[in-house]
Amino acid sequence: LEDILITGGQKDADNLFTFSRNCYALVIGILGTGDFSRSLARRLVACGCRVVVGSRTPSRFVALFPEEAEVTHMEAANQADLVFVAVYPEHYSTLVHLKPALAGKALVDVSNGLQIKQEGPSNAQQLADLFPESSVVKGFNTTSAWTLQAGPRDGSRQVLLCSDDQMAKSSVMQLCRRMGFIPVDMGLLSSSLEIENLPLYLFPSWRTPIICTLALFIFFYLYNSVHEVLHPYITGGKNKLYKLPIEIVNVTFPSVALVMLALVYLPGVIAAFLQLWRGTKYTRFPDWLDHWLTRRKQFGLCSFLCAALHAVYSLCLPMRKSARFQLLNKAFEQVKAGNADSWVEADVWRMELYLSVGIMALGLLSLLAVTSLPSVANTVNWREFTFIQSTLGYCALFMGTLHTLIFGWDRAFLAAQYHFGLPPTFLLVLILPLTVLLSRLKCRYLIMHQIM
Ligand SMILES: NC(=O)C1=CN([C@@H]2O[C@H](COP(=O)(O)OP(=O)(O)OC[C@H]3O[C@@H](n4cnc5c(N)ncnc54)[C@H](OP(=O)(O)O)[C@@H]3O)[C@@H](O)[C@H]2O)C=CC1
Ligand SMILES: [Fe+3]
User: Where does the chain cross the membrane (predicted)?
Assistant: First the structure.
Protein backbone atom coordinates (compact mmCIF):
# COMPACT_ATOMS: atom_id res chain seq x y z
CA LEU A 1 0.00 0.00 0.00
CA GLU A 2 2.86 2.31 0.91
CA ASP A 3 4.42 1.57 -2.47
CA ILE A 4 1.24 2.50 -4.31
CA LEU A 5 0.87 5.64 -2.26
CA ILE A 6 4.43 6.71 -2.92
CA THR A 7 4.34 5.96 -6.64
CA GLY A 8 0.84 7.49 -6.88
CA GLY A 9 2.07 10.66 -5.16
CA GLN A 10 5.10 10.74 -7.43
CA LYS A 11 2.85 10.39 -10.47
CA ASP A 12 0.66 13.28 -9.28
CA ALA A 13 3.71 15.43 -8.68
CA ASP A 14 5.08 14.55 -12.12
CA ASN A 15 1.75 15.39 -13.73
CA LEU A 16 1.64 18.67 -11.85
CA PHE A 17 5.16 19.50 -12.97
CA THR A 18 4.35 18.67 -16.58
CA PHE A 19 1.17 20.71 -16.26
CA SER A 20 2.91 23.76 -14.86
CA ARG A 21 5.62 23.49 -17.54
CA ASN A 22 3.06 23.10 -20.28
CA CYS A 23 0.61 25.59 -18.87
CA TYR A 24 1.35 27.97 -21.71
CA ALA A 25 0.95 25.18 -24.27
CA LEU A 26 -2.38 24.11 -22.76
CA VAL A 27 -5.59 24.71 -24.62
CA ILE A 28 -8.22 26.19 -22.33
CA GLY A 29 -11.80 25.86 -23.49
CA ILE A 30 -14.64 28.17 -22.51
CA LEU A 31 -18.27 27.32 -23.21
CA GLY A 32 -20.49 30.39 -23.66
CA THR A 33 -19.72 33.86 -24.95
CA GLY A 34 -21.22 36.03 -22.18
CA ASP A 35 -19.60 38.67 -19.96
CA PHE A 36 -17.75 36.14 -17.83
CA SER A 37 -16.45 34.24 -20.84
CA ARG A 38 -15.15 37.41 -22.52
CA SER A 39 -13.30 38.61 -19.41
CA LEU A 40 -11.85 35.17 -18.73
CA ALA A 41 -10.67 34.80 -22.34
CA ARG A 42 -8.96 38.18 -22.18
CA ARG A 43 -7.20 37.26 -18.91
CA LEU A 44 -6.10 33.84 -20.19
CA VAL A 45 -4.77 35.30 -23.43
CA ALA A 46 -2.93 37.96 -21.43
CA CYS A 47 -1.08 35.28 -19.47
CA GLY A 48 -0.15 33.37 -22.57
CA CYS A 49 -2.67 30.52 -22.70
CA ARG A 50 -4.29 29.24 -25.88
CA VAL A 51 -8.03 29.80 -25.67
CA VAL A 52 -10.86 28.12 -27.59
CA VAL A 53 -14.33 29.53 -27.01
CA GLY A 54 -17.38 27.39 -27.80
CA SER A 55 -20.56 29.16 -28.88
CA ARG A 56 -23.91 28.25 -30.43
CA THR A 57 -23.47 31.14 -32.91
CA PRO A 58 -19.73 31.86 -33.10
CA SER A 59 -19.92 34.36 -35.96
CA ARG A 60 -22.06 36.74 -33.87
CA PHE A 61 -19.56 37.07 -31.03
CA VAL A 62 -16.16 36.63 -32.60
CA ALA A 63 -15.54 40.41 -32.71
CA LEU A 64 -16.00 40.71 -28.94
CA PHE A 65 -13.06 38.42 -28.13
CA PRO A 66 -9.33 39.10 -28.38
CA GLU A 67 -7.82 38.11 -31.70
CA GLU A 68 -5.69 35.41 -30.11
CA ALA A 69 -8.76 33.52 -28.89
CA GLU A 70 -10.43 31.13 -31.30
CA VAL A 71 -14.22 31.51 -31.21
CA THR A 72 -15.86 28.48 -32.74
CA HIS A 73 -18.71 25.98 -32.29
CA MET A 74 -19.38 24.17 -29.00
CA GLU A 75 -17.92 20.84 -30.20
CA ALA A 76 -14.49 22.50 -30.31
CA ALA A 77 -14.39 21.74 -26.58
CA ASN A 78 -12.75 18.45 -27.50
CA GLN A 79 -9.54 20.32 -28.42
CA ALA A 80 -9.28 21.72 -24.89
CA ASP A 81 -7.42 20.20 -21.95
CA LEU A 82 -9.50 22.05 -19.37
CA VAL A 83 -12.95 23.55 -19.94
CA PHE A 84 -14.68 26.46 -18.19
CA VAL A 85 -18.47 26.22 -18.32
CA ALA A 86 -19.51 29.89 -18.50
CA VAL A 87 -23.18 29.14 -19.09
CA TYR A 88 -26.08 29.63 -16.68
CA PRO A 89 -26.91 26.39 -14.81
CA GLU A 90 -30.45 26.31 -16.25
CA HIS A 91 -28.85 25.68 -19.65
CA TYR A 92 -26.46 22.90 -18.56
CA SER A 93 -28.87 20.28 -19.92
CA THR A 94 -28.48 21.78 -23.44
CA LEU A 95 -24.78 20.83 -23.30
CA VAL A 96 -25.27 17.07 -22.82
CA HIS A 97 -24.47 16.37 -26.47
CA LEU A 98 -20.88 17.43 -25.59
CA LYS A 99 -20.50 14.48 -23.18
CA PRO A 100 -18.08 12.50 -25.41
CA ALA A 101 -16.04 15.67 -26.15
CA LEU A 102 -15.73 16.49 -22.44
CA ALA A 103 -15.07 12.97 -21.14
CA GLY A 104 -11.95 12.71 -18.97
CA LYS A 105 -11.49 16.50 -18.83
CA ALA A 106 -11.62 18.94 -15.96
CA LEU A 107 -14.80 21.04 -16.13
CA VAL A 108 -14.78 24.28 -14.14
CA ASP A 109 -18.21 25.33 -12.91
CA VAL A 110 -18.19 29.12 -12.41
CA SER A 111 -21.91 29.56 -11.81
CA ASN A 112 -23.66 31.36 -8.97
CA GLY A 113 -27.02 30.49 -7.46
CA LEU A 114 -29.99 32.85 -7.60
CA GLN A 115 -30.79 32.47 -3.91
CA ILE A 116 -29.10 31.13 -0.78
CA LYS A 117 -29.56 27.34 -0.65
CA GLN A 118 -29.36 25.43 2.63
CA GLU A 119 -29.52 22.03 0.96
CA GLY A 120 -27.99 20.59 -2.22
CA PRO A 121 -27.51 19.63 -4.88
CA SER A 122 -25.38 22.61 -5.84
CA ASN A 123 -24.98 23.73 -9.46
CA ALA A 124 -21.56 22.05 -9.54
CA GLN A 125 -23.00 18.76 -8.25
CA GLN A 126 -25.72 18.95 -10.92
CA LEU A 127 -23.04 19.45 -13.57
CA ALA A 128 -21.10 16.48 -12.16
CA ASP A 129 -24.27 14.35 -12.40
CA LEU A 130 -24.74 15.39 -16.04
CA PHE A 131 -21.10 14.69 -16.93
CA PRO A 132 -20.06 11.68 -14.83
CA GLU A 133 -17.02 11.01 -17.01
CA SER A 134 -15.58 14.51 -16.46
CA SER A 135 -14.00 15.91 -13.29
CA VAL A 136 -15.95 18.92 -12.07
CA VAL A 137 -14.08 21.68 -10.21
CA LYS A 138 -16.07 24.47 -8.56
CA GLY A 139 -14.45 27.90 -8.58
CA PHE A 140 -14.16 31.46 -9.88
CA ASN A 141 -17.82 32.22 -9.03
CA THR A 142 -16.63 34.66 -6.34
CA THR A 143 -14.49 36.46 -8.95
CA SER A 144 -16.46 38.99 -10.96
CA ALA A 145 -16.07 39.49 -14.69
CA TRP A 146 -14.74 42.94 -13.82
CA THR A 147 -11.96 41.54 -11.57
CA LEU A 148 -10.99 39.08 -14.28
CA GLN A 149 -10.78 41.84 -16.85
CA ALA A 150 -8.97 44.38 -14.64
CA GLY A 151 -6.57 41.74 -13.41
CA PRO A 152 -6.05 40.66 -9.81
CA ARG A 153 -4.31 43.91 -8.83
CA ASP A 154 -7.72 45.61 -8.69
CA GLY A 155 -10.06 43.34 -6.77
CA SER A 156 -10.12 40.28 -4.58
CA ARG A 157 -7.21 37.92 -5.31
CA GLN A 158 -8.60 34.80 -3.67
CA VAL A 159 -10.27 32.12 -5.77
CA LEU A 160 -12.05 29.40 -3.77
CA LEU A 161 -11.85 25.97 -5.39
CA CYS A 162 -13.20 22.54 -4.57
CA SER A 163 -13.43 19.20 -6.34
CA ASP A 164 -13.57 15.47 -5.71
CA ASP A 165 -10.74 14.98 -8.22
CA GLN A 166 -7.44 16.07 -6.69
CA MET A 167 -5.62 16.12 -10.02
CA ALA A 168 -8.20 18.30 -11.75
CA LYS A 169 -8.24 20.65 -8.77
CA SER A 170 -4.45 20.95 -8.80
CA SER A 171 -4.50 21.80 -12.51
CA VAL A 172 -7.05 24.59 -11.97
CA MET A 173 -5.03 25.84 -8.97
CA GLN A 174 -1.94 26.01 -11.12
CA LEU A 175 -3.79 27.92 -13.84
CA CYS A 176 -5.18 30.21 -11.18
CA ARG A 177 -1.66 31.12 -10.00
CA ARG A 178 -0.61 31.76 -13.59
CA MET A 179 -3.44 34.26 -13.86
CA GLY A 180 -2.17 36.04 -10.74
CA PHE A 181 -4.86 34.84 -8.34
CA ILE A 182 -4.43 33.00 -5.06
CA PRO A 183 -6.21 29.62 -5.10
CA VAL A 184 -7.80 28.54 -1.83
CA ASP A 185 -8.46 24.79 -1.51
CA MET A 186 -11.94 24.33 -0.05
CA GLY A 187 -11.86 20.52 -0.16
CA LEU A 188 -14.39 18.20 -1.77
CA LEU A 189 -17.18 19.09 -4.19
CA SER A 190 -19.66 19.00 -1.30
CA SER A 191 -18.25 22.44 -0.29
CA SER A 192 -19.57 23.86 -3.57
CA LEU A 193 -22.94 24.73 -2.01
CA GLU A 194 -21.21 27.03 0.50
CA ILE A 195 -18.99 28.53 -2.25
CA GLU A 196 -22.08 29.23 -4.39
CA ASN A 197 -23.85 30.87 -1.46
CA LEU A 198 -20.91 33.18 -0.62
CA PRO A 199 -21.61 35.94 -3.20
CA LEU A 200 -25.29 35.99 -2.18
CA TYR A 201 -24.84 36.85 1.49
CA LEU A 202 -25.68 40.44 2.37
CA PHE A 203 -23.36 41.51 5.20
CA PRO A 204 -24.18 38.46 7.37
CA SER A 205 -21.91 39.51 10.24
CA TRP A 206 -23.16 43.10 10.12
CA ARG A 207 -26.89 42.45 10.45
CA THR A 208 -27.13 42.45 14.27
CA PRO A 209 -24.76 45.42 14.81
CA ILE A 210 -26.60 47.49 12.19
CA ILE A 211 -30.02 46.63 13.64
CA CYS A 212 -28.71 47.55 17.13
CA THR A 213 -27.31 50.86 15.86
CA LEU A 214 -30.57 51.74 14.12
CA ALA A 215 -32.72 50.74 17.11
CA LEU A 216 -30.57 52.79 19.50
CA PHE A 217 -30.59 55.72 17.09
CA ILE A 218 -34.38 55.69 16.87
CA PHE A 219 -34.72 55.39 20.67
CA PHE A 220 -32.32 58.25 21.48
CA TYR A 221 -33.64 60.38 18.62
CA LEU A 222 -37.22 60.07 19.87
CA TYR A 223 -36.10 60.69 23.45
CA ASN A 224 -34.17 63.83 22.44
CA SER A 225 -37.02 65.07 20.22
CA VAL A 226 -39.46 64.80 23.11
CA HIS A 227 -36.99 66.52 25.40
CA GLU A 228 -35.84 69.30 23.06
CA VAL A 229 -38.81 69.89 20.72
CA LEU A 230 -42.08 68.53 22.10
CA HIS A 231 -41.55 69.54 25.71
CA PRO A 232 -40.77 73.25 24.98
CA TYR A 233 -43.80 73.32 22.64
CA ILE A 234 -46.24 71.89 25.18
CA THR A 235 -45.00 73.90 28.15
CA GLY A 236 -44.09 77.20 26.47
CA GLY A 237 -45.67 77.03 22.98
CA LYS A 238 -42.21 77.46 21.42
CA ASN A 239 -41.63 76.13 17.90
CA LYS A 240 -38.29 74.27 17.95
CA LEU A 241 -38.88 72.03 14.93
CA TYR A 242 -35.77 73.44 13.22
CA LYS A 243 -33.69 71.38 15.64
CA LEU A 244 -34.80 68.06 14.12
CA PRO A 245 -32.38 67.72 11.16
CA ILE A 246 -29.08 68.71 12.79
CA GLU A 247 -29.16 69.48 16.48
CA ILE A 248 -31.17 66.44 17.57
CA VAL A 249 -29.23 64.13 15.24
CA ASN A 250 -26.02 65.56 16.67
CA VAL A 251 -26.93 64.88 20.30
CA THR A 252 -28.22 61.42 19.37
CA PHE A 253 -24.99 60.14 17.77
CA PRO A 254 -22.74 60.26 20.86
CA SER A 255 -25.27 58.32 22.93
CA VAL A 256 -25.50 55.64 20.24
CA ALA A 257 -21.70 55.58 19.89
CA LEU A 258 -21.19 55.14 23.63
CA VAL A 259 -23.79 52.43 24.12
CA MET A 260 -22.46 50.55 21.06
CA LEU A 261 -18.94 50.78 22.49
CA ALA A 262 -20.17 49.52 25.87
CA LEU A 263 -21.83 46.63 23.97
CA VAL A 264 -18.39 45.69 22.61
CA TYR A 265 -17.10 45.02 26.11
CA LEU A 266 -20.26 43.68 27.77
CA PRO A 267 -20.29 40.16 26.19
CA GLY A 268 -16.71 39.54 27.35
CA VAL A 269 -17.77 40.24 30.91
CA ILE A 270 -20.87 38.06 30.64
CA ALA A 271 -18.74 35.26 29.16
CA ALA A 272 -16.22 35.52 32.01
CA PHE A 273 -18.98 35.34 34.61
CA LEU A 274 -20.50 32.34 32.91
CA GLN A 275 -17.13 30.60 33.06
CA LEU A 276 -16.81 31.45 36.74
CA TRP A 277 -20.34 30.30 37.45
CA ARG A 278 -19.74 26.97 35.72
CA GLY A 279 -16.22 26.69 37.17
CA THR A 280 -14.77 25.75 33.79
CA LYS A 281 -14.05 27.26 30.41
CA TYR A 282 -14.56 23.94 28.62
CA THR A 283 -18.29 24.30 28.03
CA ARG A 284 -19.95 26.01 25.11
CA PHE A 285 -21.47 29.46 25.50
CA PRO A 286 -25.13 29.87 24.62
CA ASP A 287 -25.65 30.65 20.92
CA TRP A 288 -26.69 34.27 21.47
CA LEU A 289 -23.50 34.98 23.43
CA ASP A 290 -21.36 33.23 20.82
CA HIS A 291 -23.03 35.32 18.14
CA TRP A 292 -22.47 38.52 20.14
CA LEU A 293 -18.80 37.73 20.91
CA THR A 294 -17.98 37.13 17.24
CA ARG A 295 -19.52 40.43 16.21
CA ARG A 296 -17.67 42.74 18.62
CA LYS A 297 -15.53 44.20 15.84
CA GLN A 298 -18.62 45.22 13.87
CA PHE A 299 -20.19 46.75 17.01
CA GLY A 300 -16.99 48.74 17.54
CA LEU A 301 -16.90 49.96 13.94
CA CYS A 302 -20.56 51.08 14.13
CA SER A 303 -19.66 52.97 17.31
CA PHE A 304 -16.75 54.62 15.50
CA LEU A 305 -19.00 55.66 12.60
CA CYS A 306 -21.48 57.32 15.00
CA ALA A 307 -18.67 59.13 16.86
CA ALA A 308 -17.15 60.36 13.58
CA LEU A 309 -20.55 61.59 12.36
CA HIS A 310 -21.05 63.39 15.69
CA ALA A 311 -17.72 65.18 15.19
CA VAL A 312 -18.69 66.30 11.67
CA TYR A 313 -22.15 67.44 12.78
CA SER A 314 -20.61 69.35 15.71
CA LEU A 315 -18.19 71.15 13.40
CA CYS A 316 -21.11 72.21 11.20
CA LEU A 317 -23.21 73.62 14.08
CA PRO A 318 -21.92 77.23 13.83
CA MET A 319 -22.51 77.26 10.04
CA ARG A 320 -26.28 77.13 10.46
CA LYS A 321 -28.41 80.22 9.97
CA SER A 322 -30.22 79.46 13.25
CA ALA A 323 -26.93 79.61 15.18
CA ARG A 324 -26.05 82.97 13.59
CA PHE A 325 -29.48 84.45 14.37
CA GLN A 326 -29.27 83.23 17.97
CA LEU A 327 -25.82 84.78 18.35
CA LEU A 328 -27.02 88.10 16.93
CA ASN A 329 -30.09 88.10 19.18
CA LYS A 330 -27.95 87.42 22.24
CA ALA A 331 -25.55 90.19 21.29
CA PHE A 332 -28.44 92.61 20.80
CA GLU A 333 -29.98 91.71 24.15
CA GLN A 334 -26.60 92.19 25.79
CA VAL A 335 -26.20 95.62 24.21
CA LYS A 336 -29.72 96.57 25.32
CA ALA A 337 -28.97 95.44 28.86
CA GLY A 338 -25.74 97.45 28.79
CA ASN A 339 -23.69 94.34 29.55
CA ALA A 340 -20.18 94.69 28.10
CA ASP A 341 -18.75 91.37 29.28
CA SER A 342 -20.61 88.08 28.83
CA TRP A 343 -17.68 85.86 29.93
CA VAL A 344 -18.78 83.05 32.26
CA GLU A 345 -15.73 81.28 33.65
CA ALA A 346 -17.51 78.01 34.49
CA ASP A 347 -19.07 77.76 31.01
CA VAL A 348 -15.75 78.47 29.35
CA TRP A 349 -14.01 75.68 31.27
CA ARG A 350 -16.80 73.27 30.66
CA MET A 351 -16.66 73.82 26.90
CA GLU A 352 -12.84 73.57 26.73
CA LEU A 353 -12.81 70.31 28.69
CA TYR A 354 -15.80 68.95 26.81
CA LEU A 355 -14.12 69.46 23.44
CA SER A 356 -10.72 68.23 24.53
CA VAL A 357 -12.04 64.99 26.02
CA GLY A 358 -14.26 64.46 22.99
CA ILE A 359 -11.38 64.84 20.54
CA MET A 360 -9.26 62.41 22.56
CA ALA A 361 -12.10 59.87 22.67
CA LEU A 362 -12.50 60.10 18.90
CA GLY A 363 -8.73 59.74 18.44
CA LEU A 364 -8.69 56.57 20.55
CA LEU A 365 -11.70 55.18 18.71
CA SER A 366 -9.96 55.82 15.38
CA LEU A 367 -6.96 53.88 16.65
CA LEU A 368 -9.23 50.98 17.63
CA ALA A 369 -10.91 51.07 14.20
CA VAL A 370 -7.62 51.14 12.32
CA THR A 371 -6.10 48.26 14.32
CA SER A 372 -9.19 46.16 13.68
CA LEU A 373 -8.28 46.07 9.96
CA PRO A 374 -6.74 42.65 9.23
CA SER A 375 -3.70 44.11 7.45
CA VAL A 376 -2.86 46.28 10.50
CA ALA A 377 -3.83 43.66 13.10
CA ASN A 378 -1.36 41.26 11.44
CA THR A 379 1.53 43.59 12.20
CA VAL A 380 1.02 43.57 15.99
CA ASN A 381 1.34 40.62 18.33
CA TRP A 382 -1.47 39.31 20.52
CA ARG A 383 -0.40 41.29 23.62
CA GLU A 384 -0.19 44.54 21.66
CA PHE A 385 -3.54 43.84 20.06
CA THR A 386 -5.31 43.23 23.39
CA PHE A 387 -3.62 46.32 24.87
CA ILE A 388 -5.04 48.49 22.08
CA GLN A 389 -8.43 46.82 21.81
CA SER A 390 -9.01 46.31 25.53
CA THR A 391 -7.12 48.92 27.58
CA LEU A 392 -7.32 51.74 25.05
CA GLY A 393 -10.91 50.71 24.28
CA TYR A 394 -11.87 51.19 27.94
CA CYS A 395 -10.06 54.56 27.90
CA ALA A 396 -12.13 55.58 24.85
CA LEU A 397 -15.31 54.48 26.64
CA PHE A 398 -14.31 56.41 29.74
CA MET A 399 -13.44 59.59 27.83
CA GLY A 400 -16.56 59.36 25.72
CA THR A 401 -18.71 59.10 28.82
CA LEU A 402 -16.86 62.01 30.41
CA HIS A 403 -17.47 64.02 27.24
CA THR A 404 -21.22 63.34 27.39
CA LEU A 405 -21.36 64.00 31.12
CA ILE A 406 -19.58 67.36 30.96
CA PHE A 407 -21.94 68.44 28.22
CA GLY A 408 -25.16 66.99 29.54
CA TRP A 409 -25.04 66.77 33.32
CA ASP A 410 -27.40 69.71 33.90
CA ARG A 411 -29.73 68.51 31.12
CA ALA A 412 -29.85 65.08 32.71
CA PHE A 413 -31.04 66.53 36.01
CA LEU A 414 -33.46 68.75 34.16
CA ALA A 415 -34.95 65.78 32.38
CA ALA A 416 -35.30 63.78 35.58
CA GLN A 417 -37.05 66.74 37.13
CA TYR A 418 -39.62 66.78 34.35
CA HIS A 419 -40.30 63.05 34.77
CA PHE A 420 -39.00 61.98 31.40
CA GLY A 421 -37.82 58.70 32.80
CA LEU A 422 -34.23 57.64 33.08
CA PRO A 423 -32.20 59.98 30.85
CA PRO A 424 -29.78 58.32 28.44
CA THR A 425 -26.80 59.83 30.18
CA PHE A 426 -27.69 58.02 33.40
CA LEU A 427 -27.93 54.81 31.48
CA LEU A 428 -24.42 55.34 30.19
CA VAL A 429 -23.06 56.23 33.60
CA LEU A 430 -24.41 52.95 34.90
CA ILE A 431 -23.03 50.81 32.07
CA LEU A 432 -19.49 52.19 32.13
CA PRO A 433 -18.25 51.59 35.71
CA LEU A 434 -20.10 48.30 35.82
CA THR A 435 -18.27 47.05 32.74
CA VAL A 436 -14.87 48.20 33.94
CA LEU A 437 -15.39 46.80 37.44
CA LEU A 438 -16.65 43.46 36.18
CA SER A 439 -13.77 43.09 33.73
CA ARG A 440 -11.19 43.71 36.47
CA LEU A 441 -12.94 41.27 38.80
CA LYS A 442 -13.08 38.76 35.95
CA CYS A 443 -9.30 38.79 35.52
CA ARG A 444 -8.66 38.42 39.25
CA TYR A 445 -11.06 35.51 39.69
CA LEU A 446 -10.03 33.73 36.54
CA ILE A 447 -6.42 33.77 37.67
CA MET A 448 -7.33 32.78 41.24
CA HIS A 449 -9.43 29.86 40.05
CA GLN A 450 -6.85 28.97 37.41
CA ILE A 451 -9.41 28.45 34.71
CA MET A 452 -7.92 30.86 32.22
N1 LIG B 1 -20.82 37.97 -15.10
C2 LIG B 1 -20.13 37.81 -13.99
O3 LIG B 1 -19.54 38.79 -13.46
C4 LIG B 1 -20.04 36.47 -13.34
C5 LIG B 1 -20.70 35.37 -13.87
N6 LIG B 1 -20.59 34.14 -13.26
C7 LIG B 1 -21.28 32.95 -13.82
O8 LIG B 1 -20.86 32.76 -15.14
C9 LIG B 1 -21.90 32.17 -15.90
C10 LIG B 1 -22.11 32.99 -17.16
O11 LIG B 1 -22.41 34.33 -16.77
P12 LIG B 1 -22.44 35.53 -17.81
O13 LIG B 1 -21.28 35.41 -18.73
O14 LIG B 1 -22.58 36.77 -17.04
O15 LIG B 1 -23.81 35.22 -18.58
P16 LIG B 1 -24.30 35.70 -20.01
O17 LIG B 1 -25.77 35.64 -20.04
O18 LIG B 1 -23.63 36.97 -20.38
O19 LIG B 1 -23.74 34.55 -20.94
C20 LIG B 1 -24.22 33.24 -20.91
C21 LIG B 1 -23.79 32.54 -22.19
O22 LIG B 1 -24.24 31.19 -22.14
C23 LIG B 1 -24.24 30.69 -23.46
N24 LIG B 1 -25.29 29.65 -23.62
C25 LIG B 1 -25.03 28.36 -23.87
N26 LIG B 1 -26.15 27.65 -23.94
C27 LIG B 1 -27.16 28.51 -23.76
C28 LIG B 1 -28.58 28.39 -23.76
N29 LIG B 1 -29.18 27.21 -23.95
N30 LIG B 1 -29.31 29.50 -23.53
C31 LIG B 1 -28.72 30.71 -23.32
N32 LIG B 1 -27.37 30.87 -23.31
C33 LIG B 1 -26.60 29.78 -23.55
C34 LIG B 1 -24.49 31.90 -24.36
O35 LIG B 1 -23.43 31.92 -25.31
P36 LIG B 1 -23.68 31.54 -26.84
O37 LIG B 1 -24.90 32.29 -27.28
O38 LIG B 1 -22.44 32.00 -27.54
O39 LIG B 1 -23.84 30.06 -26.90
C40 LIG B 1 -24.38 33.09 -23.44
O41 LIG B 1 -23.56 34.09 -23.95
C42 LIG B 1 -23.13 32.14 -14.98
O43 LIG B 1 -23.29 30.84 -14.48
C44 LIG B 1 -22.79 33.11 -13.89
O45 LIG B 1 -23.41 32.74 -12.67
C46 LIG B 1 -19.83 33.98 -12.15
C47 LIG B 1 -19.15 35.03 -11.58
C48 LIG B 1 -19.22 36.35 -12.11
FE1 LIG C 1 -19.99 65.80 21.70
Answer: 200-223, 251-277, 353-373, 385-406, 418-438
